Amino acid sequence: MSAVTLIDGKAAAARVIAEVTDEVKVFKANGIAPALAVVLVGEDPASQVYVRNKVRRAEECGIRSLEFELPSQCQAGRLLALIDTLNADASVHGILVQLPLPAHIDEHLVLQAIAPVKDVDGFHAANVGGLTQGREVLTPCTPAGCLRLLQDTCGDLSGKHAVVIGRSNIVGKPMAALLLKAHCTVTVVHSRSTHLPELCRLADIVVAAVGRPRLVKGDWLKDGAVVIDVGINRLDEGGRARLVGDVDFDSACTRAAAITPVPGGVGPMTIALLMKNTLAAARLQHSSVDRSQPAMEIPA
Ligand code: NAD
User: Fold this and answer.
1) How far apart are CA 215 and CA 46, in angstroms?
2) Hey, which of 75, 95, 233, 269 would disulfide with 213, CB 3.0 to 4.6 Å?
3) C-beta 210 within 6 A of ligand 1
4) Does ligand 1 come within 6 angstroms of the Cβ of 167?
5) Using the 8-state DSSP alphabet, how is residue 246 labeled?
6) pLDDT tens for residues 107-136?
7) pLDDT at residue 158 greater than cutoff 70
8) 112 is a catalytic site residue
9) Pocket mutation for ligand 1, best pick of 188, 196, 232 (most atoms within 8 Å of C-beta)
10) Is there an atom of ligand 1 within 6 Å of 53 CB?
């Protein structure tokens, strides 16, 4: 078996960011300044880091970013009022509410309050439904990033058998929908599935989005499989903090043709695709504003 290829998510993300940066210039030349609003409720340190990274990356691409911080004890009404204001503000193209929300706020209610055309996380039911119908909609960033890594690595995905491990609304389900749209044969397995190793061994592509460190072993893979490891698990190994994926990297490398490392695989793609989605949202809003005007030269 030839050596495994490491799928370089940092390099792929840099390519996406370069595309976005060029596209932002075209928007600006057409008098539109793409803008992303990021809303954080509470003081969770991990969420604060995620928000800071998103804002920094937006600014690097030339996307205007607006940050809103609400205290953890704030009532849902205050958050919903802020979302209403941002929905009505034509200068704001994307709205992202950082998850998780404090337990007293109904996450579903909040996500449904975001205008679907500004829903850069792709979590609104209208976008989820559109994705399952195979329409072009705003799509969750992590699975969209995984798809791009797969297409960069494999080219055409038609007819390939993909096994997706995990059925969350954020990763597993939209990943399955995107792979179906890309003409894969898709099997979704989850915590109640049986015969996981046997099912994985049938796969040309394995996407692991589980949250269980090193669950997927090398002998679960067929020779030449392409493996996308979405998992981010923090372990304390011998007193040292370590990030590992849902795939047992060392044993997987003995079977896989290509694999994403953790860190440096899927992670960097998530923020890059958020930037892409912000431009897609801006495009949606400006193409529907005034159909009497000639189409703007905004890249598709
Ligand atoms: P989740 O907890 O919402 O869902 C996990 C899924 O795994 C569930 O559907 C569950 O049925 C399934 N599962 C649990 N145990 C299983 C088992 N033993 N066998 C098979 N399936 C099992 O998690 P999520 O939000 O989908 O995230 C999954 C992982 O991906 C986490 O480690 C998370 O940190 C990571 N993640 C990474 C990024 C990124 O940008 N790289 C983004 C989102 C999530």
Assistant:
1) 24
2) 233
3) yes
4) yes
5) S
6) 999 999 999 999 999 999 999 999 999 999
7) yes
8) no
9) 232
10) no
The Cα–Cα gap between 162 and 227 comes to: 10
pLDDT confidence band for 290 (50 / 70 / 90): very low
Ligand 1 centre distance from Cα of residue 230 (Å) = 8
Measured from the Cα of 145, ligand 1's closest atom is 40
217 is catalytic: no
What is the model's pLDDT at position 52?
A: 97
Ligand 1 binding pocket includes 230 (Cβ within 6 Å): yes
72 within 8 A of 43, measured Cβ to Cβ: yes
Strands 5-6 and 94-97: unpaired
The predicted-structure confidence for 43-70, as pLDDT tens digits, reads as follows 999 999 999 999 999 999 999 999 999 9
Q: Flag whether pLDDT at 289 surpasses 90.
A: no
133 is a catalytic site residue? no
